[in-house]
Automatic annotation (TrEMBL):
PANTHER family linked: OROTIDINE 5'-PHOSPHATE DECARBOXYLASE (PTHR43375:SF1)
Top-level taxon in the UniProt lineage: Bacteria
Keyword hit for Magnesium: no
InterPro entries membership: Aldolase_TIM, OMPdecase_AS, OMPdecase_type-2, OMPdeCOase_dom, RibuloseP-bd_barrel
Annotated catalytic residues: K97
The name this protein goes by in its record: Orotidine 5'-phosphate decarboxylase
Gene: pyrF
Keyword annotations from UniProtKB, A to Z: Decarboxylase, Lyase, Pyrimidine biosynthesis
Enzyme class (EC, first level): lyase
Organism from which the protein derives: Crossiella cryophila
Annotated ranges, domain Orotidine 5'-phosphate decarboxylase: 18-264
Enzyme Commission number, as recorded: 4.1.1.23
SMART domains, per the entry: OMPdecase (SM00934)
Keyword Lyase: yes
Amino acid sequence: MNASFGARLSTAVSARGPLCAGIDPHPGLLADWGLSADVAGLERFALTAVEALAGEVAVLKPQAAFFEAYGSRGVAVLERVIAEGREAGALVLVDAKRGDIGSTMAAYAAAYLTEGSPLAGDAVTLSPYLGFGSLDPAVRAAAENGRGIFVLALTSNPEARTVQSARTADGKTISQSIVDSAAEVNSGADPLGGIGLVIGATVGAHGLELSQLNGPILAPGYGAQGAGPAELKAVFGDALPHVLPASSRDILKHGPDVAALRGAARRTLDDVAALSSV
């Protein structure tokens, strides 16, 4: 790819708004859509969501685990979601949350970030909790292939606080050290670096210093999990222009009707647009 991920994301958000729409084929949602919890139901669900949303939103986020649960045939459906989502003009963020060291991390990078791999979307979520430096193979692969990574920094689950709020020897929280490491990689990028963060939209007051990040922030939890425009403003403040609110269930519950799914996505986009007046 000729353009960097940061440049392509900036273009997509300018054209379509900052919404990230999740594709989460949870068994409960399959049932709500009247679909069977098997590969046929998975395929119908996922490709209907792509048909409805990929032409509307800047970013699609398939949750890899729900596809992997069906084995190789489920992964084949994920590959179709990635390919067809990108063909329709959306950037595809594969929500896989991978994290490992050495050659294993390099293999994950090859799978999710290297041109020619059927699992490579435009970006992937990664876990830095084996040390941010363990992600170096992915950081390099992302830069070389015009792709991005979103690194877990501050998540909304209560168990995470034990690790993410712990302090390093210099007094920083672990989450702030992740922010700072991402900012270092992104330094000087224009218009935006390719190393993003994942910060829950419902985390409340957090004390993170985000002003030097120069990268995107994925904010899961918008809609069904309780975050709206006011919560996003409270959590992200001046960093809000770089935030991608992520909504899954609030949109997907309107399926399987394609028009209803599109309408839900457009209403969510309208809500996000109201951020400038909050």
